[in-house]
Amino acid sequence: MTAQERLEQERRRTERRLVDLRGDYRGFVEASKDTNADDEHDPEGATIAFERSQAGALVHQAEEQLREVDAALERVAQGTYGVCAVCGEEIPPGRLEVRPTATTCVGCATSGPAASGAATRRG
Length: 123
What we know:
There is one protein chain. By secondary structure, the protein is mostly helical. It folds into two domains: 1-80; 82-123, no CATH class. It has helices at residues 3-33, 48-78, 93-98, 106-110, 112-116, 118-122.
């Protein structure tokens, strides 16, 4: 399977997940509209507010994954996929198999200022 095929497969999977998560989130929002329950003191434990917050975080995470996949597909189209954004060296194929959206090689992802900054979150 080519990198583009893997990324397109990941994009479809993430889109399906996002549709489901957005549906869950809407359900929690709707459930909280018609209630006068005090979420903070809910005797049942898990509250609608907690569930809504958790679903919202998962939606955000899936949206970010979709952005990363789209950026990787753009790199494929530009011919820069698999090139480390920090050092310019090739990203090992094994890393790209495990993390197809990686923008950095392992060395750059784990050392220097990139390890504690934004490049680590991207790659």
